Amino acid sequence: MATIVRESSAMFDFLKKKPPQPEPGKPQKPAAPAGGSFSPEDLARAFTVHQEEKAARLEAERAEGREAMKGVLGGSLFARSLGGLFSRNPRLDEDLLDEVETALISADMGVPATTEVVERLRKRMKDRDFADAAALFRALRSDLLAMLRPVAKPLEIREDARPFVILTVGVNGVGKTTTIGKLARRFQLDGHSLMLAAGDTFRAAAVEQLRIWGERNNVHVVAQGQDADPASVAFDGLQQAKARGVDILIADTAGRLHTQQGLMAELGKIRRVLAKLDERAPHEVLMVIDGTTGQNALNQLRQFHAAVKVTGLVVTKLDGTAKGGVVFALAREFGLPIRFIGLGEKPEDLRVFDPEGFVDALLPESLGAG
Questions:
Q1: Contact call for residues 240 and 195 (beta carbons, < 8 A)
Q2: How far apart are CA 291 and CA 333, in angstroms?
């Protein structure tokens, strides 16, 4: 689950459970203090149990996510290319490196990131660091992981931000509104209250789609209808969220091409308007990127980041024709946190980004596989 800082209510739920009844014939312990107060021992015990339960949930989701990634990403071009490559050319030579380079570029990893990885492997091969092709394969896995580990930073809902405001941005068709619905469900399961602001006012269907997600998750949606000022919708949403004491506000925005300067400037206006109510808002600018767009995703992110200071990424549609390599290109060029990846249509298919699981799903389990 997303890393959550606000946990006190969940922790105290443990103390509200009915205590076990004493067995007949055994002396009873003194009753708990009257008035509902908790002793330091009660608090310490509750905190320990809560932390253990949270750790178990995180580990269970990580395991489920890795299985899901294997099932979805194992058939990607990235995985098929490398698996077949080591099957065809298991010898440790320049031909093998050339084919590795071609496979990585073909899988949307991009020339700069690919060159960086391959030149490092080439230098180590010349230094005789590899005994065989299997050793080079292990080094490739290590290098790919090294690119992704620095950007694997789960989204934290800060205790000092109430409501915590998430502004979602991205071009048309990336799955932005659907991602908001999935995030709402995730945050609810973590015990948070939230509201949604329907700021994609250029498409009537987008407002209705967000309302449907809100009804499905029993979440209030702030909307002003088609062609309303998106900044006004965001401002209204933050006002209402503050008044109701809501934990999280997720604000949708209109999908736009990164080349549409007027619409890009509007994102800056939304940010300025939110800051009038909370100078730190939005606390997270989450950009949704379609994993099938390849290197064009870099151009999109470059323009959105300049306009609105993106703080986190969601890479969606990795279950379709995505080749997977664009994640490495994004990590190398921008170093922005990758919060989630989308592996399918179901709400649970929005997964916290796990670099080890991601790399292992893309690479063959052994040489000759593929």
A1: yes
A2: 16
Among the residue ranges 3-7, 72-76, 197-201, the one predicted with the least confidence is 3-7
First to last CA, the chain: 32
Query: What is the rounded CA–CA span in Å between residue 100 and residue 106?
Result: 10
Q: What is the DSSP letter of 149?
A: G
252: left (phi over 0), alpha (psi -120 to 50) or beta: beta
In angstroms, rounded to a whole number, what is the distance separating the alpha carbons of residues 360 and 15? 41
Q: Evaluate if pTM is beyond 0.90.
A: no
| Tens-digit pLDDT profile for residues 222-259 | 998 777 889 999 999 999 999 999 999 999 998 766 55
pLDDT in tens, 7-54: 444 444 544 444 444 444 444 444 444 445 678 777 777 767 766 676
Decide if pLDDT at 207 tops 60.
yes
Q: What does the DSSP assignment read for 8-33? A: HHHHHHHHHSPPPPPPTTSPPPPPPP
For strand 338-342 and strand 350-352, is the pairing parallel, antiparallel, or unpaired? antiparallel
DSSP three-state, residue 240: helix
- Which residue bears the tokens 């979805």? 72
Sign of CA dihedral 281, 256, 108, 126: negative
With a CB cutoff of 8 Å and minimum separation 6, the contacts of 31 are: none
Rounded to 5°, the CA angle 267-291-304 comes to 20
Query: Whole-angstrom Cα distance, residue 234 to residue 129?
Result: 56
- Provide the phi-psi class of 341: left if phi over 0, else alpha when psi is between -120 and 50, else beta: beta
DSSP state of 321: T
Nearest to 351 by CA among 123, 146, 61, 141: 61
Helix residue ranges per DSSP H, the chain: 8-16, 40-73, 77-88, 94-106, 111-126, 133-148, 176-189, 204-217, 230-244, 261-277, 296-308, 326-334, 355-362
Asked whether the predicted pLDDT for residue 320 surpasses 80, the reply is no
